[in-house]
């Protein structure tokens, strides 16, 4: 078995999906959490000067979705057919588009300006969440409301979205109230025994 | 030939009564249905739906061309788009229709075709690096488009200011990574020793840049050389010479 090290910030964000894939598959790995203070020193050792990076036998792989897809393919969480995998990928890319729309709001959340946070929640976060989660709600229903976005078994997109919602709700309570099928999917995912166990003992972080 | 004659259903057709002729047709129809299912599995029907422009449809089209896989290029008009939009999974294009079912998102489409035709790297780790470079290009594009879209005439703003504030910094953050990867990889392609869909993605973007903003990549000769190498591949060269837009 290869040795794995996942380098990311002290947070869930874009790295947690990969941590969870490793925990779910009971694969030992080094959970390399880099503080804001240490990041400038570590930056140059990362291929694209960004995190997360997965090291497989010491060889780096950057970009959160590429890492998640790679691990998911290794452990069987990437869909059962090429068509299903393409759908998992498509939802991952749609998440990336939504995430880039949310950036101004996330940046404000990291600061002290409460007025700016409220304004951006209204002008940026709400529309972006409504747009993306309407797609997710429809997708979950079209897939049979079976607790998964694609096919009939767990994929990395179930894990990624579920985790993201947990972070979102810390800052925007009831952000996803209008999306009951997605909420049910999230509940099912985070209750999986190996995930539940990890979630209960993982470090509590701002995001 | 006597073996074939004796074991095939054809004797039934000629040397039998009506009842047996019906049996023949039923058997013939069953064979046709099975053959159709088999053909669908080995040669699915692909339709790529996008506007009649290059845009986000061009890279999927080029992957089909490079893989030498037939597809129907469906150009959706501005008039037809509002109706068709309702049928798409995300209200967006391109969508790939595979035997009547949709796949959205251009990268998912590209990877779906590429990975089934040897254009996504030779190992899972190579495939992951192809994905990583493609996503890095997407991050570049998200910044770069703040200049590029203005330049192409979309939206309001000072194009020259946007070039300085967004275009040049985005370029100078992304293309050094491409050069580093080309040098490290050493094959002339970005990942592994053969062309992959991220070579097609980057070469397409580079050709577009060179076409509309000549000299913009003057400080990145390796990147321009890569684009020329990729676009010289016969199947892709033929597409570029005959493409509709």
TrEMBL record, chain A:
GO terms for biological process: glutathione metabolic process. Residues 81-207 form the GST C-terminal domain. It comes from the Eukaryota. Its EC number is 2.5.1.18. It catalyses: RX + glutathione = an S-substituted glutathione + a halide anion + H(+). InterPro entries: Glutathione-S-Trfase_C-like (IPR010987), Glutathione-S-Trfase_C_sf (IPR036282), Glutathione_S-Trfase (IPR040079), Glutathione_S-Trfase_N (IPR004045), GST_C (IPR004046), GST_superfamily (IPR050213), Thioredoxin-like_sf (IPR036249). Pfam families: GST_C_3 (PF14497), GST_N (PF02798). GO terms for molecular function: glutathione transferase activity. It is an enzyme of class 2 (transferase). Residues 2-79 form the GST N-terminal domain. Keywords: Transferase. Belongs to the GST superfamily. Sigma family. This is glutathione transferase. It comes from Pristionchus mayeri.
TrEMBL record, chain B:
Residues 44-121 form the GST N-terminal domain. Transmembrane segments: none annotated. CDD domains: GST_C_Sigma_like (cd03192), GST_N_Sigma_like (cd03039). Gene3D superfamilies: 1.20.1050.10, Glutaredoxin (3.40.30.10). It comes from the Eukaryota. Residues 123-245 form the GST C-terminal domain. GO terms for molecular function: glutathione transferase activity. One of its GO terms (biological process) is glutathione metabolic process. InterPro entries: Glutathione-S-Trfase_C-like (IPR010987), Glutathione-S-Trfase_C_sf (IPR036282), Glutathione_S-Trfase (IPR040079), Glutathione_S-Trfase_N (IPR004045), GST_C (IPR004046), GST_superfamily (IPR050213), Thioredoxin-like_sf (IPR036249). This is Glutathione S-transferase.
